[in-house]
Sequence to fold (164 residues):
Amino acid sequence: MRWLAILLLTAPQALAADEPWPFSDVVAACYSQGNASAECIGDAATACMDSDPAQTQTTLGMMFCFLGERDAWDVLLNQEYQKARNFAQSMDEQDREFFPEYAVRDDQVLAAQRAWIAFRDTNCAMAYGLWGAGSMRQIAGAECMMRMTAEQTLALRVYQEHLR
Fold:
């Protein structure tokens, strides 16, 4: 996990804590269409990299673009996670009286999310480590974090919309 700490510590400090990443709207616009799919993943990072090639077509520039998109997806991930928990709790409440053995969805969502976080961190550490001391490791690790965060966001959306 040392690589993750390094990645996070080197994140750009140019934006104020409450100021959104300039390309967050690319993710939000695609996602708000309701039919967001894996096709959206990477669009904001690409827009970021195309915005100022002299700055963003460098190793650090690409890494920051991927991390910026990861952060935009993370906002949506947290929203979808809460919706999934609310949905699971609602379903559990319906089953609690007559089928209490099935009223475990909320615990399942919580356990799955915790396991996913551990898997994401380990999987992206593997992507980062593949490149050894090469600078490509920063891009690979950040891209992995962005992609996996986006994919989990989409999976949580499908989960909580599944029976509606």
Notes: The radius of gyration is 18 Å. Residues 3-16 have pLDDT under 50 and may be disordered. Residues 59-95 form the longest helix (37 residues).
